[in-house]
Amino acid sequence: MRTTYAARAVAGALAALLVLAGCSSKAQDDDGDKGDGAAAGEVKTGDGISGKTIKLGVLTDMTGVYATLGKSVTQAQQLYVKQLNADGGVCGYKVALSIRDHGYDPQKAVAGYTELEPDVLGFAQFIGSPFVAAVKQRIDGQDKGLVLPQAWSASLLGSPYIRVIGSTYDIETINAVDFLIKEKGIKKGDRIGHVYFEGDYGESALVGSKHMAKESGLAVVEQKIKPTDNDMTAQVAALKKADVKAVVISAGPRQAASLVGVAAAGGFDVPIIGNNSAFAPQLLATQAGPALTKNYYVASPSLPIGADTPEARKLVADYKAAYPKDALDNGVVAGWTAAYAFGEALKKACASKDLTRAGVDKALLTIDSLDTGFGIPQDFTDPNAPSSKQSVILQPDKSVTGGMKVVRDAEASEVAEAYAPGA
């Protein structure tokens, strides 16, 4: 993947923070596992388990660019833990979440990880591909706690501890462009625009659009932005001048709403498709709402929260009961799925009588078809691959639960199937 000067600068700043934070020098067992031994027949435990409580870390965004997503993800995970504990917990232990808001700030994200890591078994949430990447070396080298991030950069693959749930951004973008070709009339020789965040998220998605363009005879017109850029007027003007026939956006909900709204106001009538984190249903109540329902689509690693499945209907009812004043969105699905996956790993580790970090990591590797009722089974057996290559294509619709309807069911395009992330 191409590394920009800005990306190197951010990486350098984060590395400096890690040096200042210092490396943990916890005592380890002879086999490298940190934690307490166990007598024959007892469950082995270690970091993150104290008394009769298993602590899991949550590094979320409640105040930054993904505040709506972070709130939904976190509340869904709190709901899962509440129900898990009501059913008896895991091996007689109750599960508790230790939550920190990093506000999508790199310094706060790294500091939050440094603070929580010694006291938790692993992380059921970590929003932000660049921030997870910043501590990846620590996770892989010494901490070795399971991390299930709400981040889909291909750079996170290859770790037995950081496990991407669903297709990575490059694969998701390949499927998104496939939709534009098959359903929206994009053809060989056309130009497509790509507006993307600098850093791991946007540049991972850009790899996907470029790969699909090469395979399909398209050209990509790039527009790189920062997470603090909220007005897409200049980007729309540049793409309109370049005569692009469609646009991919790999950014946040605010940027997507601005892009779609400005395009509509300027008569730039082309289909726009975003990655899974580039939409929030709250946008449908803004001035951009009508344009979003007409010309905007989203590639998703799962069916939406309003899916017509028993599991989705139960989650909707339970979430409404727990948080009656809050909107339903796909952050609920993402949070629930990650918590569910972590819970299943804990249960399997319990059955093996090993609730250490190593035991939980090993347990997740045995899960080859996790189905939470949202359309796409997840396979965690290969750390070098995402748990799925399929994407669902959604369209905003304020008349349905969660504000998103399915316009193409889960599938992996032929190009996505043949594609190897990082190759």
TrEMBL record:
Report the sequence similarity comment from the record.
Answer: Belongs to the leucine-binding protein family.
Protein name in the entry: Lipoprotein
Under SUPFAM superfamilies, the record lists: Periplasmic binding protein-like I (SSF53822)
Species of origin: Streptomyces flaveus
Provide this UniProt record's keywords sorted from A to Z. Lipoprotein, Signal
| Residues in coiled coil | none
Could you say which residues form the signal peptide? 1-21
At the top level of its lineage, which domain of life is listed?
Bacteria
